[in-house]
Write a structure and sequence with these properties.
heterodimer, A: mainly alpha, 8 helices, B: mainly alpha, rod-shaped
Chain lengths: 277, 64
């Protein structure tokens, strides 16, 4: 049969190498696929619970009134923007150092989600700054370094997509991601190092939280929701990218041909639409 | 309970534009991104099917 094993007689890769190199993406594809429904469930449940507590249980802020309720999306988005960058740089470095291709795929999959959360942190921050500070934007250390983070994400995405050879693209991206990771501690400590308009850390590991515990509960729940969301959407993108990179392997072709995949199998010689490749 | 009525809830103490603007943008982004990722997955499956078809055509005996 046409689709049973198109590579049976192919002299290209040696069997041992193929088994080793292709096992990881296939296993990743299956495991990530199995995790997706649970991740969406956690994201949805925590998001609804966090917003319910944030809007209906948490009290009005004494100084900022109701405008502070932007915190339940602003702070998770800002945390995720920094942590996703570190995760992206980590996987890009692993992919570079060990030529682990799934690691590079993960790094590439994280970038758009990180950029999205960075943009969200900036936009919600502007919408919070206007009523609180009287301005949408100031060039202070926290805001400027966060804007730089957005440009680092966009630069990484552009660089990786501009180079045709995937391995060279992965390497160049890893270098940019690693150099740019210097910016993350700058963002985090900017409110301490410089005199900025932005308020200091709302919660830290070394001090008691400076907010009502219902506010804190709501914020931690929406943060958990954003985490689960980020894992889910990164896994979706990594699965798609793994499939494209593995399109010449048997497992990917069998998967794409299965009825569950939704793409009807095409057999050579079965109709006039046959093309000579 | 913080709100006496629905309109009070939507007014957000005068900050409605800013609060709901923030959550509106967030909702839009958090819906759009998975939709794009799902589309990318469908395109990936199509690319695999395409590669599989071309390779099978290469190996199939001539039709005549």
């Amino acid at each position: 049969m046409a689709l049973s094993n198109p590579h049976a007689e192919s002299p290209r890769p040696t069997p041992a190498l193929r088994l080793y190199t292709f096992a990881a993406p296939m296993r990743f594809y299956r495991l990530a696929g199995a995790a997706l429904p649970w991740l969406w469930l956690v994201a949805f449940a925590c998001g609804v619970a966090g917003l319910y507590i944030g809007f209906f249980v948490a009290p009005t802020d004494a100084t900022q009134g109701e405008s502070y309720r932007i915190i339940f999306i602003h702070v998770p988005a800002a945390w995720l923007s920094m942590l996703l960058y570190l995760a992206m740089a980590f996987w890009a470095a692993i992919g570079w150092a060990f030529r682990a291709r799934m690691a590079s795929v993960l790094a590439r999959s994280i970038a758009p989600t990180g950029a999205m959360f960075t943009a969200l942190a900036l936009i919600t921050g502007a919408l919070w700054g206007q009523p609180t500070w009287g301005t949408w934007w100031v060039w202070d250390a926290r805001l400027t370094s966060e804007l730089l983070l957005l440009f680092l994400y966009l630069g990484y995405i552009a660089l990786v997509n501009a180079i045709d050879d995937p391995r060279r693209a992965d390497q160049a991206g890893a270098l940019l991601a690693l150099v740019g990771s210097v910016n993350v501690p700058i963002i985090y400590f900017s409110v301490k190092w410089w005199n900025t308009l932005h308020q200091g850390a709302t919660i830290s590991l070394t001090a008691a939280p400076k907010m009502a515990h219902t506010m804190l509960t709501a914020m931690l729940l929406t943060t958990l929701a954003c985490w689960a969301y980020a894992f889910a959407v990164v896994f979706m993108r990594a699965r798609a990218m793994a499939l494209v990179r593995e399109r010449h392997t048997q497992w990917a072709q069998e998967l794409a041909a299965s009825p569950a995949a939704g793409t009807p199998p095409r057999h050579p010689g079965s109709g006039p639409q046959e093309r000579v490749a | 309970m913080n709100w006496g009525s629905a309109s009070e809830f939507f007014a957000m103490g005068g900050y409605g534009l800013y609060v709901w603007g923030s959550y509106g943008v967030a909702l839009l982004a958090l819906v759009l991104e998975p939709w794009l990722a799902a589309r990318q997955h469908r395109h990936a499956l199509a690319a695999v099917a395409e590669a599989s078809f071309e390779e099978a055509a290469d190996e199939a005996p001539p039709a005549s």
